[in-house]
Amino acid sequence: MNIKKWAIPVVTVAGLLVVVAWMAGVFTSQVAPGLMERPTDKAISSYTVQTITQPRLESIPAGIKAREATLLSSQILARIEKIHVRAGDKVTKGQLLVTLESESLKAQLAQAIAMEDASQAMLTEAKANFERSQTLKEKGLVSQSVLDNAVASFRRYGSELVAATERKQAAQTGLEYSKIHSPFTGVVVERSAEPGNMASPGQLLLSLYDPLTLQIEADVRESLATQLNIGRRIKVKIESLGKEINATIVEIVPAADPNARSFLVKAGIEFYPNLKPGMFARMIIEDGTQDILSIPVDYVKSYGQLDMVWLLKDGNLSRRFVRLGKSQLNQVEIVSGLNSGDTLSLSAN
């Protein structure tokens, strides 16, 4: 039994060593480690590795934000009667979104209007009395005190009318606040209240954004940001959608973050379906050029975590393991394993 217990791990390790040895070419003709030579047919398709100059692209983590977004809240203390939209609904500018209970507000407005009418009537009477007293005083038929009383009454009722008018305007404003409308055309992001809840001034009810004003924002290192300018065209990669879209730099905040040594750069983008505020993106900015080795991806064979190519030299094929870099279109960068001028074969058969 003891022999069986230790024999299983030993056999497993031995098997792994055999596989590694095979991939290293141990069981083939002895050549340099990692290489295996074979005679080749001259008709096999080949490719000569060359150094190419291409733009150096810097990928910067970024986020999507809406330039035009708002949080809607109540301006008065009132119970919510109805909310006409839900999260995800599209709304138009001026559309009614929330209705608050307004019976008490209507009563206040009616009372204010009645008080204004009464004050207006009293002022009219006081004005007539003042004009009459002034005429009689000029004729010497009344004393100065009578005229002074008439003047005081006229001024008092005038002030009362002004106050009554202000109360009416305040009641009208309060009644208008009982209906909340959309300030622009957009999409409802969040609904934070329900009918029957008490809405107080400043309490969040709805949040909206305009999908046509989405933009990309990223903190760009200062050495690169100082090379940028408004209107420059860049690329933006949306990894969750697997898309790359065009963008235009619209703002570079003229103050660096002293801790990160970076500038906030904003880029406007065209409308694209499924883009939402808060999504992750990458701002792709060209930063000069670089010389790299690049080969067609068809020449690369992958075995698990390892990548290799067939090297053609003096009519013989050799297996060569390589380390890959970034891919672009049908080309892939070679970080190590090959030199400029090496000839590759498309197949070992």
UniProtKB/TrEMBL annotation:
Q: Which InterPro entries match?
A: Beta-barrel_RND_2, BSH_CzcB-like, RND_pump_MFP
Any one Gene Ontology molecular-function term assigned to this protein's record: efflux transmembrane transporter activity
Positions of the CusB-like beta-barrel domain: 216-286
> Which Pfam families does the record cross-reference, listed alphabetically?
Beta-barrel_RND_2, BSH_CzcB
Q: Which GO terms describe its cellular component?
A: efflux pump complex
Residues spanning the membrane: none
- Domain of life of the organism in this record? Bacteria
Ranges for domain CzcB-like barrel-sandwich hybrid come to 74-200
NCBIfam families linked to this entry: RND_mfp
Query: What is the similarity comment for this entry?
Result: Belongs to the membrane fusion protein (MFP) (TC 8.A.1) family.
Protein name per the record: Uncharacterized protein
Lineage of the organism:
Bacteria, Pseudomonadati, Pseudomonadota, Gammaproteobacteria, Alteromonadales
